[in-house]
Request: fold
Amino acid sequence: MNDLLRRVTLPADVAAALEACNSITIPQTRQELYELSLGAPGVDTFDVVYDVPGKGAFKEADVVRCTNGIAVNYPEDYIRRRDPDCMRIADDLPTDKPRFADRHGQDFAPIKAETLTWLSEQELLVVPFKAGSLKFGYPSLAIVPRNAAFFATALVDLQGFVTLDELPEFSPRAILYLAPPFRHTHFDGKQIVVHDRTESLHEIFAYNLYPGPSAKKGVFSALLDIGESENWLTAHASSVRVTTPYENETIIMHEGASGGGKSEMCQEMRREEDGRVLLGYNIVTDEPYAITLSETSKLAPITDDMTLCHRDLQRSDGLLTVADAEEGWFVRVDGLTKYGEDPAFERACIHPPEPLVFFNIHGVPGATCLPWEHELDSNGKPCSNPRVVIPRSHINGIVNEPQQVDVRTFGVRMPACTTDKPTYGIMGICHVIPPSLAWLWRLIAPRGDKNPSIGATASEAETIKHGGMVAEGVGSFWPFSTGTKVKAANLLLEQILDAPRTRYVLTPNQHIGAYRVGFAAEWLTREYLARRGQGKIRDDLLTPARCALFGYALKEFKIDGQQVRPTLLTPEFQSKVGVDAYDAGAKILTDFFKSELKQFLTDDLDPRGRAIIEVCLNDGTLEDYLELTPLHA
Reply:
């Protein structure tokens, strides 16, 4: 075993596997790790191949050296996006997630031993990292085959590169193991990520090479596990400091299910060639609706996806304090389809200070990898989940210190709603809600309308196809949590109630009634809230929404001297929607909430949470929610 590893206290079976391994590399620099991603220095193309019994040499991925980084692509469409049903729990600690033995008919222990034996027979990389960022994180390790160095490079770009020399002697709080062939030999080709927890160690066994469910969300799972034991949360959110043309600053934190606009919250507002902002177009009449903004606010990103709300960061002044749980961002670029749509981000991708790691994006040896040239799926269409890992240090104006959140927005992908085809796509451009409703929306985290980030189960795909919703679950971090829903719900409620000065807003994306809006509604709401000063909206500008779950609608939405059409604030008044279609959509939404909320009514639920849920189940009014949690502290 490498002498450096003797400074790390490892479980006995892991130490034995590493002791038996003939080749262990512990990279000393990020550049060394990057070069290993292509097999050897100077190589321009590299196939990641494993010997799979019954299949022979099986290619899992190919890596291409471009001028601005490496392009990693997978032969199988399925591996290009996270499978929502990939998590398995191997231990006996409390969980609501599928246990390995229940799904696979056997205990995980023999496969764990097989995995360690297989790793001991490979040329290995052992890579230290800090789960939860360099500043606030927990010392951890990744043990991966050397020929999967691209995976390790993406991991350290996300979590931050450290060497064992920089760390004191430690026991890893998390260990990530990578064994790609096992998906073929043990799991019918499926992405499977097995979590094996103790009170002091979270082990992640990743059986596929797409980093989404392991290097990204697997580490998220470890942080949620740690937070559950220490009573704090890592939110599934982005956050941004918005500075208006008048130098007023507002911190906005945006949450929602995958595809709900977290990455977009930190992006500049898109403009047409003439400088106007296309807010949307009517899908029935094809009428476009654009407004003119002479100047927009300056954005300074804070977090992109994993937002640390550690208990040690919190103050006693009633605002939630957050910091980034990552050193790099796994940015989805499906919204980039041509040059010039996001110049600042394009510049960061095309001219980075050091080469990047691209996924599902076309790469040609020696050429520049362009973020809008997405790899084609087998159906000939561009992959819906192209990604690039951008280190925080590459992003101009990024905020590195913890920040206090003024407004927490929640984004929901909405389908079109028309008189002829009523759906739940009836949310106005901006709704102000009390903390009780903010908690309910986060318990459900509705996901629908062509989410691009992850695959869907057959039943989910069928539900969404026919205008329905599926719940991503508590905080939208539930897909990555290894614990119990009620415990997570209690922690989330406590977090919300402990920050009474933070305000809550709902905003839709994709559609508002009959208008196709994309993310323009979210961007305009961001601008509006910042110009109001820390998201403050006078009571006389609010009116109860027709659907109680939406809290308050706005009576007017005035920005830069222009009034946004009232029918985008209250879609029931759109000529192509109407009250009847709106009420049908409200019933779809309300029935869905009721069906999902009943599962939380256990003896372990916080009594305050039970009272909030019962208001919804009893068709309560906005006043009922306000009685439990006032709008303003």
Remarks:
- The chain has a mean pLDDT of 93.
- The domain at 274-295+408-628 is CATH 3.90.228 (Phosphoenolpyruvate Carboxykinase; domain 3).
- The first strand starts at residue 23 and ends at 25.
- Residues 234 and 308 are 5 Å apart (CA to CA).
